[in-house]
Design a protein that fits this description.
The complex is a heterodimer of chains A (506) and B (371). Chain A contains 22 helices and two strands. Chain A is an all-alpha fold. In chain A, β1 and β2 form a beta hairpin. In chain B, α5 packs across α7 and α9 packs across α10. The chains are: A mainly alpha (506), B mainly alpha (371). Chains A and B meet through α2, α3 and α4 of A and α3, α4, α6 and α12 of B.
């Protein structure tokens, strides 16, 4: 609201997802591989294993190319992206944690230089010095995780910080330790996966088998530990947050299942191709495991971000950069008068569509697009103007966990004018289930979250059609009126009545 | 409410975690730490690129050494760049975010350009002996082009940031982030001043390579002479570009450096004196048998010049922003529980880095047991 909104042409979340997922994948790898390198190097010295040592030298080149170059640049990339797509949140975080990041920066300097000296020092340094540099690398890299983990978990569970605004309270928040432990296992699993990929390039069969098996142990053990530690993480989440993930947000639920399935598949394939039949560790197989793992970790991060909705920092700031504490004032004054980045034309003019569009821009575009990913046109297709207007007053009740609309009724009217140009003509429905999903399903489910069945259990079809659906707005303050035509209403009533019957026959 | 203030976001509800003077000190200190490798990276890539076209043994060797080093110098540039990026956001976020959003695509492009340039320099560094000179030159100059592009985007962003009066027009005409700040009179003088400054600093780096080369005396001597010559040339050009920048400024800002601000005028004068001193000492050093003390003195003079320039740049920024944006009014606290650990860790971290660098560059104390 305070800042201009970048209309990048697609959902900002996608840009963030791509940059952040790749960075997280690489940065965790960079930490785990630190430990992998020193432990394996020591093993090679102890067993006087020249082949393992020569493999490690080549592996550390990949390591430098991926971590020092891509990891470092994409990490800066995250700064650029969050500043562009969510400046208000970035500003909050930087005010609260700038010295946390400054501390991380110190570790980062040590990490990068130790990484480079480790790589360039293979033939130059004494063995023990080289190992010491490797340890310095790993410790510095791990400490940078120790710091950044405090800030990432703070966003989901700021807990006591909300009261005292104290750095360390926010830092050591309820999900801090479980998250640190799972990220550590994740790092070690990724180290194994990268080792598996570099091992798949080895021509000599004996060495190939040995290193493949060795990498396989890192993967399977740490993946299993990662999954177990996630259970602890899940427990540490406050109930409200847990509930959000457990039923309210439709996509999150599907994603949870998908994540676990992917993870299981990854472990099984790795178990088979790395440990049982290491001969199978060919380049495409290893790369496939890596892609699967990217899916597992990408979806884990995605879920963590998604359960935080409607906040960017829980309870403190909404995803659209509006503070819950300022919503009251905006409701009084109006969003057009409160937001900084409204054009003069939209602020003072009579062009409702332009004003509506700019309201959409400052309140909705931090997540939504018109027609792309999270496109609003698709979500409100065929909605009557009145229905749109009513729903905009209840955004914070929707299952999608959205911030409330901040502004006056006049603001909502203008937003509705604009949105109804996207909604198009009202649609017809094949059956009542479709009506339910389109109109009721945005808040209710059948049998689960905000279960509709007990709510309609006492009514007959006639009650539903003639009285209930006709007077929804009078039931309690939260329900919008049903604005569909008679045909849609009858179909819906029939469907709702059938739910009750279905329950009775059970 | 005037036009300009209208679009400056409100101050963040959270107070600054440290007093403004401390954050500014950290900003200028860490910016200087970033500026030095950044200049060597950009100027060094250009000097390597030029050396590919020269046929002497010295240039061949200079190009080889620079090419091998540049990826590491890029790593330093990026690493050192993070801290000033943090401190500029905490101090100037209200300006930094809107201006970068107005030119979002070019700004984001920085990341891509740096990444590609980085890999190109690694390609040159690792495959040096396997590439012929034409290919080396092409890769090297492509990297120069990309890095100069990054510098140009930065010049746009840093000038747009201090001119909030330009934001709204650009944003409401195109909110997709495809803007630059090309209408700004100081843009090109400022940009050229930065690029050429990088050349001068990289020239000093070449002289330094000569100073620290203990075994190959012929290279040491030529590097020192070549570095001194380049340094003199680029510093003279720098004076001209500095004058050009100065006259591109609005009258009021120009006056700051001509006596209206005592601090600004003294710093500018000192910078000129110090850089002239650096030229004289370095030129003399290049023609003596024992150049060490003179080269070190000229390096220190240059270091102070860079620090003063960074401070002058900061004074200019605040002058541009006054009276619409004033840092002194921002609420601040003193977050001792993090500032003190940070400072202690910074010292510890730098000591660790020195220890590692010492082991790496002076392995003489190590017995050569590594295979």
């Amino acid at each position: 609201m305070n800042f201009p909104v970048w209309e990048l042409g697609f959902a900002p979340g996608l840009l963030m997802a791509v940059v952040a997922t790749l960075h997280v994948f690489v940065s965790h790898f960079a930490i785990g591989t630190g430990l992998f390198l020193v432990i394996t190097e020591r093993k090679a010295y102890r067993e006087d294993d020249a082949e393992l040592l020569s493999y490690l030298k080549r592996h550390s080149l990949v390591f430098i190319m991926v971590s020092v170059v891509f990891g470092a640049v994409s990490g800066v990339g995250i700064w650029f992206v969050i500043g562009l797509i969510n400046p208000a949140v970035t500003s909050s975080l930087i005010h609260a944690f700038v010295f946390g990041w400054a501390i991380e920066w110190v570790f980062f300097i040590v990490e990068i230089l130790a990484g480079l000296i480790y790589y360039y020092g293979w033939d130059k340094l004494r063995r023990d010095t080289h190992l010491t540099i490797g340890w310095i690398y790993f410790i510095a890299a791990f400490l940078s995780l120790v710091v950044i983990n405090g800030i990432v978990t703070f966003m989901l569970t700021p807990a006591g910080w909300l009261e005292n605004r104290e750095f360390w309270t926010g830092f050591f928040n309820p999900t801090y330790f479980p998250s640190l432990v799972s990220r550590t296992f994740l790092s070690l699993a990724l180290a194994g996966i990268y080792a598996l990929v570099t091992a798949s390039f080895i021509k000599e069969t004996g060495v190939h088998r040995r290193i493949t098996r060795y990498a396989g142990i890192w993967i399977v053990a740490n993946m299993v530990l990662f999954e177990l530690s996630l259970l602890w993480y899940w427990k540490a989440m406050p109930e409200t947050v847990y509930q959000a993930a457990a039923g309210a947000i439709p996509i999150t639920v599907n994603m949870l299942d998908a994540r676990l399935t992917l993870s299981a598949i990854t472990v099984i394939i790795a178990l088979f191709t790395a440990l049982i039949v290491p001969k199978l560790n060919k380049i495409p197989v290893a790369v496939a495991i890596m892609v699967l793992a990217l899916g597992v970790f990408g979806s884990s991060e995605w879920i963590r971000e998604s359960v935080r909705k409607p906040y960017s920092i829980s309870q403190y700031i909404y995803t659209n950069g509006i503070f819950p504490s300022e919503v009251g004032a905006i409701n009084e004054k109006g969003i057009l008068a409160s937001a900084k980045w409204i054009s003069d034309e939209a602020r003072h003019g009579d062009n409702y569509l332009q004003s509506g569009y700019e309201i959409f821009r400052v309140e909705c575009m931090s997540c939504h697009t018109e027609n792309g990913y999270l496109g609003i046109a698709d979500k409100i297709k065929g909605w009557e103007k009145e229905f749109i207007f009513e729903i905009t007053a209840r955004l914070d009740s929707l299952r999608g966990k959205m911030p409330p609309f901040a502004g006056t009724e006049a603001d909502r009217r203008m937003l509705t004018e604009y949105l109804s140009t996207l909604a198009g003509a009202s649609r017809s429905f094949a059956d009542g289930k479709e009506v339910f999903e389109d109109r009721c399903g945005i808040c209710h489910t059948v049998g689960q979250y905000r279960n509709i069945i007990p709510m309609v259990a006492d009514f007959t079809y006639e009650d539903l059609n003639d009285a209930v659906l006709a007077g929804l707005q009078d039931m309690n303050g939260n329900m919008p009126p049903f604005t569909g035509n008679a045909d849609a209403r009858e179909k819906l009533a029939k469907y709702l009545a059938s739910l009750k019957d279905a329950k009775r026959t059970k | 409410m005037n036009e300009i203030v209208q679009y400056i976001p409100q101050v963040d509800p959270l107070p600054l975690p440290a007093p403004v003077w401390l954050l500014k000190l950290l900003l200028i200190f860490t910016f200087t730490l970033h500026l030095i490798p950044m200049n060597i990276m950009l100027g060094g890539t250009v000097i390597a690129g030029i050396s590919f076209f020269k046929k002497t043994d010295f240039h061949r060797e200079l190009a080889r050494r620079l090419t091998k080093m540049i990826p590491t110098i890029i790593a330093l540039t990026i690493t050192m760049g993070i801290a000033p990026l943090l401190f500029i956001q905490v101090l100037y976020g209200q300006l930094f975010y809107p201006s970068s959003i107005v030119m979002a695509w070019p700004w984001l492009g920085v990341i891509i350009l740096v990444m590609v340039a980085y890999y190109l320099t690694y390609l040159n560094s690792f495959k040096f002996s396997r590439l012929n000179v034409v290919k080396r030159a092409i890769i090297s100059w492509s990297a120069v082009l990309l890095l100069a592009g990054v510098a140009f985007i930065y010049s746009n962003e840093m000038t747009l940031m201090v001119t909030p009066g330009r934001w709204a027009t650009a944003y409401f005409a195109d909110s997709s982030g495809l803007n630059l700040n090309l209408g700004e009179p100081m843009l090109f003088p400022r940009y050229l001043h930065f690029i050429n400054g990088a050349m001068a600093v990289a020239a000093m780096f070449v002289a330094m390579l000569g100073l620290f080369e203990k075994r190959e005396k012929w290279f040491a001597k030529e590097a020192l002479q070549y570095g001194a010559r380049l340094f003199m040339t680029f510093t003279f050009i720098q004076y001209l570009l500095g004058v050009l920048w100065l006259i591109s400024l609005p009258q009021k800002m120009m006056a700051l450096f001509m006596g209206r601000s005592i601090l600004a005028s003294i710093l500018l004068l000192l910078s000129i004196v110090l850089s002239v001193g650096a030229i004289l000492m370095l030129s003399k050093a290049a023609n003596t048998e024992r150049p060490t003390r003179r080269v070190i003195s000229s390096m220190i003079s240059l270091l102070f010049t860079i620090v003063f320039m960074a401070k002058l740049r900061d004074i200019l920024r605040d002058a541009y922003l006054s009276p619409n944006f004033n840092l002194e009014t921002a609420p601040s606290s003193f977050q001792a529980s993090t500032i003190i650990p940070f400072l202690i860790l910074l010292v510890g971290g730098l000591l660790t880095v020195f220890w590692m660098a010492n082991k790496f560059f002076f392995p003489s104390s190590e017995s050569q047991s590594a295979k």
